[in-house]
Design goal:
Number of helices: 16
CATH class of the largest domain: Alpha Beta
CATH architecture of the largest domain: 2-Layer Sandwich
Strand content: 5-15%
Radius of gyration: 28 Å
CATH superfamily of the largest domain: Glutamyl-tRNA reductase, N-terminal domain
Number of domains: 3
Enzyme class: oxidoreductase
CATH topology of the largest domain: Beta Polymerase, domain 2
Subunit structure: Homodimer.
InterPro entries: 4pyrrol_synth_GluRdtase (IPR000343), 4pyrrol_synth_GluRdtase_dimer (IPR015896), 4pyrrol_synth_GluRdtase_N (IPR015895), GluRdtase_dimer_dom_sf (IPR036453), GluRdtase_N_sf (IPR036343), NAD(P)-bd_dom_sf (IPR036291), Shikm_DH/Glu-tRNA_Rdtase (IPR006151)
Structural class: alpha/beta
Pathway: Porphyrin-containing compound metabolism; protoporphyrin-IX biosynthesis; 5-aminolevulinate from L-glutamyl-tRNA(Glu): step 1/2
Order of helices and strands: EHHEEHHEHHHHEHEHEHEHEEHHHH
Distance between the termini: 24 Å
EC number: 1.2.1.70
Length: 433
Amino acid sequence: MNLLSIGASYRTADVAVLERLAISESAVPDLLQRLVAQPYVGEAVVVSTCNRVEVYAAVSGFHGGLGDICNVLSEHSGIPATELAGHLYVHYGEAAVRHSFRVSSGLDSMVVGEAQILGQLRDAYHAATEVDSAGRLLHELMQQALRVGKRAHAETGIDRAGQSVVTAALDVAAEHFGGDLTGRSALVIGAGAMGALSVATLTRAGVGPLRITNRSHDRADRLAEAYGAIAVGFEQLDAVLGEVDIVVTATASTEPVLTRDRLAKALAVKELVVLDLAVPRDVAPDAAELPGMVVVDIDSLAAGRRTQPAVAETAAVEQIVASEVDGFLGWLRGAEIAPTVAALRTRAEEVMSTEMRKLISRRPDFTEEQRADVSRTLHRVVQQLLHSPTVRVRQLAAEPGGDQYAALLRELFDLDVPLATQADAVPEIGGKP
């Protein structure tokens, strides 16, 4: 099995495409099951956020795995595979490992250094664990990616320039209000992870009064209580829209929450800045150009990114990623030789057993105790002869170019070790940036 990551993000697709690709939390288990049911896909983890949809997979062949995953994403989104291909980036083998570590470190985020992706990766990993779609390879990759992300934030200042997409959106809102949001009234629609992050960020920015609404009123109540905000019923949305300066909307709705009619009524009272951080978008497409309203969404943020960490901080994280990729590849090479070492030990045991049977047939006069003594002695000799070579070959296999040692063992001892097909592997896959 080899690692393959396929995805679309704000770098390769606009919001319209990401909306169609977006996978709701409730739909993730079914999609994971569909992925691992494909002929070339053995393991799968799906990450779906406001600005990326990615599949990490363990596949038995590059082209077969690529085709299987693209077909599943095409069926899910309704986008023809030929059209979808133009929006996807692909990373294979070492490049897939590097990409996962860069994602977890925030280097691939719209706001470089944001830490929210760590929680999103953790949720994706847990979802895969619950449906048993992550095997040994993806368990190790996800655990190491989460550790690398934590290390990047702990050892560098990568997260100082911008904590999340929310802060970038609020920067745009602040510009509209002359650079200061203090005392501006706001409404947050949605009490999920992005909504909670929005409430925390707005509170730190001095925004107030701050209202929160959600279809589940209990969640809005709990979030409001935690930040000293005001929870309002979802049925009061129309009235509240006409009372606030800023609206941050981040729901999981598949249909627009802020329709043209709803926003037009609010705009008849006052101007409005709407930060639409949802994918699919919460603001109806035909409402975006209403007079008196400023809409900031994922597309506009991607087009005008301005919060970037210092070059030195980014370089420091890139160095961490590079060293961690080397470490993971060393583990991977060591894991790949394990079947060969196991096959060698099995072959030795088979030879010992065969010779023991021949000895017993020649010496029927041996007692059971004598036979047991001879068997134990042969076993110890075999184990001692194999111990140093197998320990050393594991060490050598963990080094660059180590795969040659496994191949040499198989050749020398004529070992039959089932291997994942490499016939359609490609030597270098970097994918789109």
